[in-house]
Amino acid sequence: MRTTEPRLHPRPPADWDDDTREVMTRVEQDGRVMNIYRTLAHHPKLFKRWSVFGTHVLYRSTLPPRERELIILRTGWLCKSEYEWSQHAVIGKASGLTDEEVARVMADTEAQGWSDNDIALLKATDELLLDSFISDKTWEALSATYDTRQLIDIIFTVGQYKLVSMALNTLGVELEEGQTGFGD
Fold it and tell me: What is the pLDDT of residues 78-128, one digit of tens each?
């Protein structure tokens, strides 16, 4: 069962404290602050500290952007987080994923069209979400392409977006204006 209404409405700028304003200046895009950030403004200290880690995973990870987005989309899909999906479908396309690949993320990891490397990333994501562990076979496949730091970034990317998906789903964060969910 999912909530159909926001449990916490995004906080308006007038209610932000100084720490929150500081973080919002870094996440603002085209003069707008997304609902996820305005909702997390209900807990300013957590928001400020979490944003440091989230920034690493999204912008400073050692993973190539396309691969990072493939992992994030798979995580959002498996966690049933339409907000996460809608945001990263756009980011994924800007990072090199095709419309077909974004749609294919919802299919089985063995769907035709994926490279062996993409399959390994998708399987690692599935395994981490189901078992909290990457199998030896999948680890070996990933190790053929990725160095130690990248392997660690794979794990932390799945973990970060599982956490974010749980928050988005539970708090009922609404899609941004103009964004679409899974069925669109």
Answer: 999 999 999 999 999 999 999 999 999 998 887 789 999 999 999 999 999
Residue-by-residue DSSP string for 49-62 = HHHHHHHIIIII-S
Q: Cβ contacts of residue 76 below 8 Å, gap of 6+?
A: 84, 85, 88, 161, 165
Query: Do 71 and 154 contact (CB within 8 A), yes or no?
Result: yes
Integer angstrom CA distances of residue 88 from 64, 149, 182: 15, 23, 12
Residues 150, 148: Cα–Cα separation, whole Å: 5
Residue 26, CA distances (Å) to 20, 29, 45, 105 in order? 10, 9, 15, 30
Confidence of residue 168 (pLDDT cuts 50, 70, 90): very high
Side-chain-side CA neighbours of residue 166 (13 Å): 6
- Name which of 62, 56, 77 is nearest 142 in CA terms: 62
- pLDDT digit string, tens, across residues 149-164: 999 999 999 999 999 9
Q: What 8-state DSSP symbol labels residue 13?
A: G
Could you give the CA distance from residue 160 to residue 180 in angstroms, rounded to a whole number?
Answer: 22
Task: Give the predicted TM-score (pTM) of the model.
Answer: 0.94
Radius of gyration of the chain (CA): 17
Residue 68 tokens read as 């990072």
